[in-house]
Amino acid sequence: MDSCTEGARDMADAAAQDLAYDVFSKQCPSRGTLEHVTGRWGALILGALHDGTFRFNELRRRVDGVSEKMLSQTLHALERDGLVHREAQPTNPPRVEYRLTPLGREIADRLMNLIHFVEGRMDGVLEARERYDSVATGGR
Fold it and tell me: How far apart are CA 27 and CA 41, in angstroms?
């Protein structure tokens, strides 16, 4: 088999793998992961972990407004999806740290691009909100 045939087969395999999951189908497992990544707390936690390794309370302080319960639930979901690694060190009290896995890092890199894009366009968003609100309330 020549390298062109191998390259074509690799591309066909990659295309088939891309089609193996369809987030628009309610049965697709990718939908749950997308919800974990793009949900309010998931996106903020992944963004915070993009900066490095954090202990639970450090992460809670970094993600302003998240409750202890929501932080715990979200970290469990992200860990289950293979995006976050939890490491408990055998000390007294136990020292638990969270960091991104390689897959989590890849997703967080893309997410940070979106976060920076949104932050950079907020003046336009706030202007649009003002225009909308003034029309919706009849200029009151």
Answer: 23
123: three-class secondary structure by DSSP: helix
Residue with tokens 């970094």, as numbered in its chain? 62
**Are 99 and 53 a contacting pair, CB within 8 Å?**
yes
In 3-state terms, what secondary structure has residue 43?
Answer: helix
CA angle 70, 33, 81 (to 5 degrees): 80
CB contact at 8 A, 55 and 120: no
Q: Comparing C-alpha atoms, which of 15, 14, 33, 11 is closest to residue 23?
A: 33
Question: Token digits for 92?
Answer: 């007294």
Task: Give tens-digit pLDDT for 46-59.
Answer: 999 999 999 999 99
Residue from 8, 66, 7, 72 nearest 41 by CA: 66
Token readout for 84 is 């976050």
Please tell me the distance from the alpha carbon of residue 10 to that of residue 16, in angstroms, as a whole number. Answer: 10
Question: What strands, in cross-sheet order, belong to the sheet with 84-89?
Answer: 54-55, 95-100, 84-89
pTM of this prediction?
0.80
Chain center to CA of 78: 9
